[in-house]
Design goal:
Layout: H1 4-21, H2 26-33, H3 37-49, E1 53-55, E2 61-63, H4 65-87, H5 92-102, H6 108-120
Helix pairs in contact: 1-2, 1-4, 2-3, 4-5, 4-6
Amino acid sequence: MKNMESAENYLETILMLKAKNGSVRSIDIANELEFSKPSVSVAMKRLRESGHITVEDGGLIELTADGKALAESIYERHVVLSEALEAIGVSPDVASEDACRIEHYISQETFDRIKEHFSSHK
């Protein structure tokens, strides 16, 4: 996809919806993200073309191995960053919103150091 942050957000949403509901369709993503169905359709086409998802019979969306790996990586960043921000006194809602922005731009080195620091201080 042209916008990697957008693609990562979609993949993370698919991962979370799959864990929560057992299956995912475009309408589920549209409802979760409060996006229009046509916007989600375009994004799903791009994710399919990039090899991150497959769309099964009945419109069920599945992450490919690459898509799942990327989604899990982004989700881990979100969780770790949210927890780190909360640990320094940021409210849970703001921590989650900020983590969602930061997770796409932070370097792997910086993320690894934050993860190490906060996991050793629990």
